[in-house]
Design brief:
343 residues; Enolase-like, domain 1; TIM Barrel; 2 domains; 13 strands; globular
């Protein structure tokens, strides 16, 4: 007989995390536990207010229904988790961890054995010019060879200055530079700004315009001098299937966030579809704690060992769960000698 329960968590950012959608000081979510009387598996249900499609008003009620279903599988139909992608991923994660006897080794590999590591980008958050410049200096000092800079929140000339600072020190053959606009560019300015940004030899730019404008995004992808990656565009598909979306827009890349898309199985389907259309991809954590980051990292290692992933979020919080995960010289590693802290 299985037992299931959940608890809410609050993580505090080390700084005020700013995107084009606003500022965050705290991150809330839930841990889902499934036990068989001997072992307990844990999953993380992580949402981002203002971005996730999860209905937060009925979130706990949906978790409660899920727990009842888990404990009474034979007599209760599974609650529909449509519209709750973060809960679906948490459920998927907890089940995998229970199968692994609560070890949090969801996909054993050279990564979890500590033999190989995952290349990741260093993330530079939005803020005033001095704050962003300090982050850039720190990432370069830490040995990152791929940096992602969030753009669209401060003065565009200041952003150009920051990119120029990077390129003066590190040319494109030494440092890969990715940008993330979080949909900040306006219709009449997007192609002009992309043209200006292209002189810095940008690897790609995520979501240059707001999602839900397929005609505009298609035109941007076809005319942009910088390869475009769809991010928020994948999260809430209402009028098109994934196949229809990719065939129509034809982006150069897609960004996969299991907590926002509905878990690993869903992301595997996106990868298969992208590869069929010769579209590149990488995965990005979505502000999860180390529990969710661990699941994403272990999964993505089984899909690719060479793509630079967006998994550098483990150090964002002052109160994260201690774990075997570590970041060093632009790589995410796993030290099996380190034990997990209490969730």
């Amino acid at each position: 007989m299985l037992k299931a329960y959940f608890k809410k968590y609050e993580l505090q950012f080390r700084f005020n995390a700013v995107t084009s959608r606003g500022e965050m000081k705290f991150k809330h979510g839930y841990f889902l536990f499934i036990g068989d009387g001997i072992n307990t598996g844990v999953g993380e249900c992580s949402f981002i207010e203002g971005l996730s499609i999860d209905n937060l008003e009925s979130y706990e009620a949906t978790l409660q229904l899920l727990c009842q279903h888990i404990e009474n599988t034979d007599s209760h139909p599974a609650p529909s988790l449509d519209g709750f992608p973060s809960i679906r991923f948490g459920w998927e994660m907890a089940k995998l961890d229970l199968e692994a006897k609560g070890t949090k080794i969801l996909y054993q590999s050279d990564f979890t054995d500590g033999v190989k590591r995952i290349p990741i980008n260093g993330l530079v958050w939005m803020g005033n010019k001095d704050f962003m410049l300090e982050q850039i200096r720190q990432k370069l000092q830490d040995g990152f060879r791929c940096i992602k800079v969030k753009v669209g929140a401060i003065n565009f000339d200041d952003e150009i200055m920051l990119l120029d600072f990077i390129r003066q020190k590190f040319p494109a053959d030494i440092l890969e530079l990715r940008l993330d606009a979080n949909g900040a560019f306006k219709v009449g300015e997007v192609l002009k700004k992309l043209d200006i940004l292209s002189k810095f030899h940008i690897h790609s730019i995520e979501q240059p315009v707001k999602q839900g404008q397929p005609e505009l995004m298609k035109n941007v992808c076809s005319q942009s001098p910088i390869p475009v990656a769809l991010d928020e565009e994948l999260i809430d598909l209402k009028e098109a299937t994934p196949t229809e979306l990719l065939k129509f827009i034809l982006p150069q890349y897609i960004i996969l966030k299991p907590s926002l898309l509905g878990g690993i199985e869903v992301c595997n389907a996106w990868i298969k579809l992208a590869e069929e259309h010769r579209i590149g991809w990488w995965a990005t954590s979505a502000l999860e704690s180390n529990v969710g980051l661990n699941a994403i990292a272990q999964w993505v290692f089984t899909k690719s060992e060479s793509i630079v992933q967006g998994l550098g979020t483990g150090g964002l919080y002052t109160s994260n769960i201690s774990s075997p995960l570590f970041t060093q010289h632009g790589y995410l590693g796993y030290n099996p000698a380190i034990k997990w802290g209490e969730v």
